[in-house]
C-alpha cells in the first residue's frame, strides 16, 4: 500500500535533502512506494518544479507520484507522514517571542489543514524552529488528531551528542547508547550522558564532569550556530538525516537495547508540566512511542531539565492566545 508523505518548505535546503532521501527508500524501505506531496509558498513554486524534475530524473524504484502545491489542503490530503520544515527564520533584531508569533500563523494554518485533510493516524514531525512550540501550535489546531501524533525534532541534537562523545573517547558512534536530550530544541536543552554507555562501560567513568559541563553540553547546545559560522548556512544535510532517523524509528521501531530523544506532548513524566512539547528518552515499537521511566537524575540534571521546561512554559505563554 503506497504511503503519502508531505514535506513543507520543500524547495528549501532541508526539504530538498529530505525529498530525495525519502524517495530513495531510506525512510520506509525500498519496497514501500511513497507518494510525495511538496508544499511551498507561491513565490517558490518555480523552484519546486525543479525539485520535482530532479526527483523524476532519479527514477527511484520507491517513488510513486510527486505533487507540488502552495495549497495546504492539497499538500496534507490523505497524508500518512508529514515533515513540517518550512518556517520563518529569525531576522536581525527579532526577539524569540516575535518569531513565535510569526510562525504561529504558519503552523496554525497547517494544523487546520492536517485536521481536515490528513489520515487520522498521521505522524507529524516539526522541524521548523522554534520546533517544540510550533508542534504545540500545530496540534492545538488539529483537535481531531491524537496529540501523540505530533512531535518535534530533537534527533539532530541527539546525534550531535553521540558524535561529540565518540570524538572525545576515540570510539565509533555505533558503540554509544542511551544518550538523552531533555527539553527544548534551543540552547536550554540538556544533553545528558548520565546513563550513556560506550560499549559496556558507563560513559561517565571515561569522561569527567568538568568536560561534560564546560565542553560537551555547550558544544551540543550551540552546534547549530557553529555550523552557520563555518559554512554561512544552517544545518541541512544533518537535519534531514536526523528527521529520517526520527520518523523511521517512530514508524518501524527503535533499537531494542537503546533509546532515542523525541520531543512529545508531556504527560507529567519526570515532573514536567503538561501542555508543552518536551524531549524525553524514548523507545518505539509497533508505530508507538513510550517514555523511558525511572531514570535517576542528580541535582545538576534536575536543574538543567527544569531550566528548559521553564523556557517552554514561557514560549507557551507568549502564544497562548493562539492555542
The N- and C-terminal alpha carbons lie at a distance of: 35 Å
Structural class: alpha/beta
Question: What is the arithmetic mean of pLDDT?
Answer: 95
Oligomer: single chain
How many helices does DSSP assign? 10
Helix content: 40-55%
SSE pattern, N- to C-terminal? EHEHEHEHEHEHEEEEEHHHEEEH
Q: Uncertain spans, ≥5 residues at pLDDT below 50?
A: none
Radius of gyration: 19 Å
For the biggest β-sheet, the strand order reads 3-2-1-4-5-6
Largest sheet: 6 strands, parallel
- Please give the number of β-strands: 14
Q: Looking at the structure, what is the overall shape?
A: globular
Beta-strand percent range: 15-25%
Question: How is the secondary structure organized here?
Answer:
Layout: E1 3-8, H1 13-23, E2 34-39, H2 45-58, E3 63-69, H3 72-75, E4 81-84, H4 96-117, E5 123-126, H5 131-140, E6 150-152, H6 155-169, E7 176-177, E8 180-182, E9 190-192, E10 197-198, E11 201-202, H7 209-221, H8 223-231, H9 237-252, E12 260-265, E13 277-285, E14 288-291, H10 299-318
Parallel strand pairs: 1-2, 1-4, 2-3, 4-5, 5-6
Antiparallel strand pairs: 7-10, 8-9, 10-11, 12-13, 13-14
